[in-house]
Specification:
mainly alpha, 5 helices, 69% helix, globular
Length: 118
């Protein structure tokens, strides 16, 4: 019940926000999933680089990000611009991150297989 209340609150905060999203900013529900995949890719490459000093983490992370952007039909530029917009609007970023935490319990279904070696 608590999770439902929090989810409703997050949706209300986002939908009732005085600041309408610019046309070139990724909408919150899609941004959630893309950002979640980017975070998982970052964690995977960090973990692999800690296990293997020869692991080319930067190159592998770039490959994973390209796959993520392609799978979600967004460009790196769209993602970066959207991320910066959310970062400059703390209320929206808080709502986005809170929603990500809640949805983590339901396990995102990503179109990109991030947990496997590429």
């Amino acid at each position: 019940m608590r999770n439902i209340c929090i989810t409703v609150l997050v949706v209300l905060i986002i939908s009732c926000s005085k600041n309408k999203l610019p046309a070139d900013v990724i909408e919150p529900s899609k941004m959630e999933v893309v950002l979640w995949d980017i975070i998982k890719a970052d964690l995977l490459t960090l973990d692999n680089s800690l296990k293997d000093s020869a692991y080319k983490s930067i190159q592998e992370n770039i490959k994973l990000q390209k796959k993520i952007f392609l799978a979600h039909s967004v460009t790196k530029e769209q993602f970066n611009k959207s991320f910066n917009y959310y970062a400059e609007n703390p209320g929206l970023m808080t709502a986005l991150l809170d929603s990500m935490i809640i949805n983590d319990k339901r396990k995102y279904k990503s179109p990109v297989k991030i947990n496997q070696q590429q």
